[in-house]
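INPUT
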Amino acid sequence: MRRRVYLCEGETEQHLIKALKENELIEPGKPQVFNVAQRDVKKMLRKWGRERFEIVVVVDADTGPYAASSRLAENIEVLKKSHMPCLILQCENLEEELARCCGIVLHKLYDAFNASSASEFKEKFLNVQQARLIEKLEHCGFDFSRMWQMHCKDEKLNSTLMEYLWGRNS
Amino acid sequence: MIFLRLKVDNLYMFQDATIDFTYSRRVKGSLVEGEYLEEFPQVRFKRVCVIMGPNAAGKTTLGRLMCSINNYLFGIPVKEVRENIYDSNRPAFVDLLYVVPALEELRRLRVELDTKGLRRETLWAAPLRKSKSLKQMESALDESEPLFEWMRQDKAAADDAGGLVLLSQAFATGVSLDRASGWHYIFSEMDVSSDNLAHEQQDLVLLEKVLRAFDGSIDSVRLSQDKDNAYVIAFHNGDRVIVEDGQLRPSDRLRLSRGTLESIEVAKLLATIIRQGRGSPDVSSTFFLDEKMAYSHTEMEAAILNVMIERMGRYSQLFYTTHNHDILSMALPSHSYLFMYKDDFVRFAQPEKMGFSKNDRNLLGYVRNDIFGTVPDTSLIDALLEEA
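OUTPUT
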């Protein structure tokens, strides 16, 4: 089995990736919090060793992947030399992405989690057991086939990143 | 006694937890031989159980619980269990399915306890049948009248000075749960162990082989001429350290590497395993080695584990906890691995129940991809790369 690491922007994305993996909606891999749009991925290379494995980078579309020279683009350049990077762009951020996949407006998603703000949503989201998270989202109409489909803004994407966009090469 | 299945609820961090120590299909060409009862081949049990999981996943706690069970079955009062009831408003229970080969009986023991102590104890027993599957025998066992049943009366609870310890009431009234089996548990804390096996003089020939493998500067291990119950580790350069009553002097501890120090205890267990395997191979014993080779080279760890598996008695079980992923590369059947992780409570993942039913060489790949939830989350450590 190919080794795979998911680099997530925050704990909520990590929680979601774990749940998606448990429900076999995505390929197995180790999710960890590492914001590739802000941090230097070179520092992780020592730890990862020389094995060329797949690194799936999950970032929000509102964190600047469209900038011509972003930290994200630099990191992807670094990763492509030693590993197999793959980029997942979320529609604005996780909450927006989930609401879009559920076909509901954001505040309806918040309501489903008894939350009234983004921070409260994150807290409540993390409190849902990993094994029950997808079931809870499905009650809101969650359709995984709609997840991470960012065609609308593709044309603005930096060419380096475009090459590694999730779904392009797989 | 051979562990076949263990259910635990509301004790430590175990909540409605079940571990199955049997396996459903024989693995062709398995390099762990004899994982069934010779006379009752449908009773298949795991002789080897490599337990892996992140830190604080409950591996040591599982060992402590199993150790308590061995003690309890033997009739030894068990301490420090009652205090570990998770929710004090409801009873906890341990439900054990086991077999004692010498008795040719399938047994089930259910022990309920609460903050006052033992609450209820029930023992079922049924003879093993060649023609029946384990599942059929278990069904028959569940439908049978208990061999022994005890329930605490309220008054007794008030008078129960014993509330501090758990003593089997079956044992107290002359019903033997298991007096035939042995056990030897070594825990990761230095010098913490429990066993009921005969202590013979340290096998110095074996110890010398193990210590010399760990430390090339060691020349020999010899019985001390000056002190009783002591031996001398001699180095090529003439240095000597004395181990008296199993203990090194504090000043001598620095002479040996941490890995070598730990290997002294590991060698003791290895000697017990070999002695049991050679002397009374049909006596079932439980061996539990808890991260005692954390300081050893990975090759050394695999080599020692390999010897333990090879030399232990036919009806013994070895439980071995480790963090070393290289152990996954050993040619053991997938059912020989048990993965533990913790979310709200301790969880178990048994690969053979998840579709990995043969000698799966890719088990390491699955583990690294965190299929079993056992890869620790290093995000907080990695954050220190850039943050203060």
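end of record. The longest strand of chain B covers residues 117-127.
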